[in-house]
Design brief:
The relative contact order is 0.20. Helix 6 links the parallel strand 7 and strand 8. The strands form 2 sheets. Strands 6-7-8-3-9-10 form a 6-stranded mixed β-sheet. The protein is built from 7 helices and 10 strands. With 228 residues, it is α/β, with parallel strands linked by helices. The longest helix is centred in the C-terminal third of the chain and has 17 residues. It has a single domain, classed as 3-Layer(aba) Sandwich (Rossmann fold), CATH 3.40.50.300. Bound molecules: adenosine-5'-diphosphate (ADP). Adenosine-5'-diphosphate (ADP) binds next to strand 2 and helix 1. Adenosine-5'-diphosphate binds next to strand 2 and helix 1.
């Protein structure tokens, strides 16, 4: 069996195709993410990071090219299969936490598991274990508004990993935080990535954080290039 968890092959994407405002964002993106590997993606703003992550996370479709998850080509799958794959195999983290404000930290991590058919007690145990590992177990019963920015983002990481995905995709996960908090929150994220044996593609502007991952790629001119 291949140990490539996520493979992107010749992905292309153009917005406003055929109009004067046409933007060719991706021009043939290739990437192989191996099991247990954390890859940093650096790119100037507007280079197409979010577009790439959304396509890799099955939230958007490429014009051409393929996305393979666990060796399975998922490019041509229907909406229902893509939604199921997204729920089971992919965790997504954004710059902003996007937690549900009316639910507690624990509930925010439990709900996606219940939606996936996990029993309540098992889901709660998993949620507490995740919160514990990122150092916010004591805040489990608080709603997002009562948490600091760093705590909110740690809870968002736990929610992304609630259903034990194979792949974590993160779009500037510490971009909203001050430098010191950013460092600590990034450590918490990497602890989870290593602990869970995840493959992670993490977009960041922070070169110090990028350097702490296994390798770095740069998105430029619509293609991904290795950074030595
Ligand atoms: P990044 O995340 O690297 O900042 P994005 O993927 O958000 O870049 O955007 C890449 C380029 O595509 C930008 O020039 C942006 O304006 C353009 N773009 C993104 N989404 C759309 C859209 N839905 N329609 C038209 N242009 C878009």
């Amino acid at each position: 069996m291949s140990d490539v968890t996520l493979r992107l092959k010749s992905l292309t994407k153009t917005y406003l195709k055929g109009t004067p405002g046409e933007v060719q964002v991706l021009r043939g993106v290739d990437l192989e993410l191996n099991a247990g590997e954390a890859v940093a993606m650096v790119a100037p703003s507007g280079a197409g990071k979010s577009t790439l992550l959304h396509i890799a996370g099955l939230l958007d479709m490429p014009d051409d090219g393929q996305v393979e998850i666990g060796g399975q080509d998922v490019s041509g799958k229907g909406d229902r299969t893509r939604t199921a794959l997204r729920r089971q195999d992919i965790g997504f983290v954004y710059q902003f936490h996007h937690l549900l404000p009316e639910f507690t930290a624990l509930e925010n991590i439990t709900l996606p598991q219940l939606a996936n058919g996990t029993a309540e007690k098992t889901a709660q145990d998993r949620a507490m274990s995740l919160l514990d590992r990122v150092g916010v177990a004591a805040r489990a019963s608080h709603r997002p508004a009562a948490l600091s920015g760093g705590e909110q983002q740690r809870v968002a990481f736990c929610r992304a990993l609630a259903n034990t995905p194979k792949v974590l995709l993160a779009d500037e996960p510490t971009g909203n935080l001050d430098p010191e908090t950013s460092d600590q929150v990034f450590d918490a994220l990497m602890t989870l990535v290593r602990d869970e044996g995840l493959s992670a593609l993490i977009a960041t502007h922070n070169m110090d954080l990028a350097a702490r991952m296994d390798r770095m790629v740069r998105l430029e001119g619509g293609v991904l290039k290795p950074v030595e």
